[in-house]
Amino acid sequence: MTTSTEQQIALIGAGPSGLAGARCLQKHGVAFQGFEAHSDVGGLWNIHNPRSTVYQSAHLISSKRMTEFSEFPMPEHVADYPSHRELLHYFSAFADHFQLREHFRFGTRVQKVEPVSAAPDTLWRVTAEDAQGHTTTADYKGVLIANGTLAEPNMPRFEGHFSGELLHTSAYKRAELFKNKRVLIVGAGNSGCDIAVDAVHQARSVDISVRRGYYFVPKYVFGKPADSIGGKITLPPWLKQRIDSTILKWFTGDPVRFGFPKPAYKMYESHPVVNSLILYHIGHGDVGVRADIARFDGPTVHFKDGSARDYDLVLAATGYKLHYPFLDHALLNWKGMAPSLYLNIFAPRFDRLAVLGMVEASGLGWQGRYEQAELVARYFKGLDEGKASAAALNAAKAGPPPDLSGGYQYLQLERMAYYVNKDAYRKAVRAAAAAQA
Question: Which of 46, 140, 314, 374 has a Cα at 20 to 30 A from 9?
Answer without folding.
Answer: 46
